[in-house]
Design brief:
The protein has eight helices and ten strands. The chain is an alpha+beta fold. The chain has two domains: 62 residues, Winged helix-like DNA-binding domain superfamily/Winged helix DNA-binding domain (Arc Repressor Mutant, subunit A, Orthogonal Bundle), CATH 1.10.10.10; 157 residues, Chorismate lyase (3-Layer(aba) Sandwich). It comes from Pseudomonas zhanjiangensis. This is Phosphonate metabolism transcriptional regulator PhnF.
Amino acid sequence: MNLSRQSEPLYRELAAVLRDELRQLRPGDYLPGELQLAARFSVNRHTLRRAVDELVLEGRLLRQQGKGTRVLAAPLIYPVAAGSAYSESLSALGVRVEAQLLERRRRPASQEERQQLKLAEGDDVIELDTLRLLDGQPVSLIRHRFCVTQAARLNDYRGGSLRQYLAGQGLPLTRSHSLIGARLPSRDEAGRLLMPRHAPLLTVLTLSRDPAGRPVELSLSLSRADRFQYQVAP
């Protein structure tokens, strides 16, 4: 198959052709190898790579080292509401959700954490870092911060839905408010989420309260912008 080589850059013309062909593939399917595609379109590998890069940035494809380039599903819509929980909301959409505990630490609370969680000067927080995977693919990093008085409840958490775990510990939480933003990932964040450093992250800072209305958790989620759309309830 030959491309027309019009005024538009060749790699963009090729990206448009590939974008159209992706409609015939299912999420999880792999593209043919670079050499095979380059030969099919009569382009060099550099041009082919730039075309695929366009689709990776759009969230249509995922490069997996040693495996190939995989077709992704359309971005997921996550409802941001008072009672919504990450794992439960996405599981209801038929997505396999995993939550891995990456790190646990105790440290002095920052000024923002003291203000949001109503802590005193010198108080500590318990911080848990988790990685969320959807259908086996890393999508979100979440940093959970709790007052140190919750340490005993958190001792046995090893992974899975943190909301469900806390509810089982007698501490159901409700979202008080969320602040949604965006930024570029750090090198470590991009590596963990298998994404390029020039692609944006969606950030959501959330304060959650217990049934008595006391602030309990301040969380910051970092999600691949190509995999998520947040729906805010009225």
